[in-house]
C-alpha cells in the first residue's frame, strides 16, 4: 500500500490493491524463500547477503516514510543509520571490555542485549532526527537536500576524528549481540530475526500511512498551502515523520553493526544516504515494499555484475537512468500497474 | 446592527513601491454576501491572503468576532473558522474527493496526531465529510481522485472542504472563474443558500453573479476601496462607472 494506492478510486483500487498486494507478498516470500533456500544448500555467504538486503530495506523503509509519504528528500539518512550502528557498537564494546560506560548516576556497563540496544538506537536516532529535522525543515527543496547532507557529513567527520571508539578504523563487536531465546550467531536465526523486524516495521508504516497522521503527511507532500488552509501545520507533521524515520533507520543501523560485527564511519558516509535514495527510486518511491524491492535488486546487481566487471556501477547507472525515465513507479509500480509513467 | 463577523481597519501592504493594499477598511456581517470587485491587479487576492494569514499586512488590523488576529497564522485562522477557496483551485490532487474533505474535517477537529486508527473508517470525520460533499453537489463523486475532476467540480470540492471546516466565514477568491454559465449559475445558487450558514467575502469577476447575489459590494482599485454599497448604489456610482464597470461594458 502506497501513497498512490491509498489515493486511488475504490473500484480501480480494489483491482490494483490486489495486484499490488500480490507483488508485495511475492517480495516478502521471495526474501524469506531465498534465505531458507540458500541456507538449505549450505550457502552461508548468501544467507548473509539476504540478511543485508533485509537490513538495508529497513533503513530504506525509514527514509520512505519521509520521502515517499511526506515528499522530503533527505540526503542525510546515513546519519541515523550510522548512529544506530555506533550505539550498538559502543554499548557492546563497553560490555565486552568490562569498562563501564558511566558510573554516575548509576553504574552502566554497556549491554550485549539486542532488545536494549535496539531501543537505545531508536532513541538516539529519534533525538538526532528531532534536532536535524527541526533545523532542516525551515528550508525546502534543494536547500533541504543540502542541509540534510551537511548534517550527515558533520556526524561523519565527528566519528572519524573521535579516537575513543576507533576513529577512522571503526569499532569491532567481537561477539554478535544476543536475543533472548535465539542463537544470533547462527546465520539463519539472525536472518529470521531481521526479517521479523523488517515486516514489523513495514506493518507499522502501513498503519501510520492510513491514520489521520498519515493523511496529513501525504497531504503535506502534495500541497502544503492547502494543508495550512484546513488548519493543519505541515511543519509539525513532517517533523514527527522525520523523528519516526530517524528511529527506524537507526534500528537498521544497529542490526547492520551486528551483521558485520563491526561499525565504521562508512556507515555514516553520504554514499549510504545515496544508496537508500536509489533503493526507493528503483523500488518505487512511496510504495510500502519499495525499499525491499530496491535493496534486493541493488544488492543482487552488485553481487552479479560486480563479479563480471569492475565497472558495474556504470551499468547500474544506466539502469537507474532507465527507471527514472521510463518507469517512474519503479519496479513495484511497473509490476503492480503494468504501466509506465513517462 | 449586528456585530460584524470580520472587521478590517486601515489595512496596508506594499510590495516594494507597489501599494497592493492601501488603507483598506471593510467589514463582513452575519448573513451577508459581501462582494469585492475590481480590475485585474487591484489587490483583491492580496487582501484575501492577509485576512487568511498567508501574508502579513504592514499596518492595520483584522478582527474575527471581535478578536484581533495578529500573530495567528493561517492554520490557526482556519481553525477559528476562516474557510477559504483559492483563485487557482488548490486541493490534494492525488487524494479522492472524500479524502480531501475528510482532511478538512480532520483539520477542524484539531486532532491530527493520531497514529493507529484508519482515518478512512473514522465516522467522526466521514459522516460530516459526506454531508459536506452532498451539500456542495458532488454526491456520487466521492471516490474520484481530485486530479480527475472537471474544473467546475474542483471548485465545488473547495466549497465542500470549506464547509467541512465548520466555517465562521467564507473567503472565496473567484470561485466561478472558468466555470461556464450553467456551472456559475448553479454555484451562485449554492452560495446564495450558504450565506445564512456563514457570511461570504466573495471576490468575483462575473458581474451578473455579483449583482444578483451580493448584499453589499466594495470596489477595489489600485489597492484602495473607492466605494462600498448595495448593488443599486454601486451601479449608480459615477466613479465606479468610470474606473471599473464602464470599461467592462
Ligand atoms: N508576492 C508579491 N510580490 C510582489 N508583487 C505582488 C505579489 N503578490 C501580488 N503582487 C502584485 O500586487 C498587485 C495585486 O495583486 P493581486 O493578485 O492581489 O490582484 P487581484 O486583484 O487579485 O488581481 P486578479 O483579478 O488578476 O486576480 C499586482 O500588481 C501584483 O502583481
Ligand atoms: Mg486575484
SSE map:
The complex is a heterodimer of chains A (342) and B (249).
Chain A: H1 3-7, H2 10-40, H3 44-69, H4 78-97, H5 114-136, H6 141-161, E1 171-172, H7 187-210, H8 212-222, H9 224-229, H10 234-260, E2 262-263, H11 270-283, H12 290-308, H13 312-326, H14 330-337
Antiparallel strand pairs in A: 1-2
Chain B: E1 6-15, E2 18-28, E3 33-37, H1 44-52, E4 59-64, E5 67-68, H2 74-79, E6 82-85, H3 97-109, H4 123-135, H5 151-164, E7 169-173, H6 180-194, E8 200-203, H7 207-213, E9 216-221, E10 224-229, H8 231-236, H9 238-248
Parallel strand pairs in B: 3-8, 3-9, 6-7, 7-8
Antiparallel strand pairs in B: 1-2, 1-4, 4-5, 9-10
The complex binds adenosine-5'-triphosphate and magnesium ion.
Magnesium ion is lined by residues 44-45, 87, 173 of chain B.
Give a verbal description of the structure:
The complex is a heterodimer of chains A (342) and B (249). Chain A has 342 residues and is mainly alpha-helical. Helix content of chain A is 73%, strand content 1%. Chain A contains 14 helices and two strands; from the N terminus they run H-H-H-H-H-H-E-H-H-H-H-E-H-H-H-H. Chain A has a two-stranded antiparallel ribbon with strand order 1-2. In chain A, helix 2 (10-40) runs antiparallel to helix 7, helix 3 packs across helix 12 (290-308) and helix 4 runs antiparallel to helix 5. Chain A is globular, with a radius of gyration of 20 Å. The model of chain A is unreliable at 1-14 (pLDDT under 50). Chain B folds into two domains: 1-81 and 167-249, Rossmann fold; 91-166, no CATH class. In chain B, 38% of the residues lie in helices and 24% in strands. In chain B, strand 1 and strand 2 (18-28) form a beta hairpin. The longest helix of chain B is centred in the C-terminal third of the chain and has 15 residues, at 180-194. Chain A binds chain B through residues 3-4, 6-11, 207-208, 210-216, 218-219, 222-223, 225-233, 236-237, 240, and chain B through 52, 54, 73-76, 78-79, 84, 86, 90-96, 99, 102-104, 106-108, 110-120, 122, 125, 143-145, 161, 164-165.
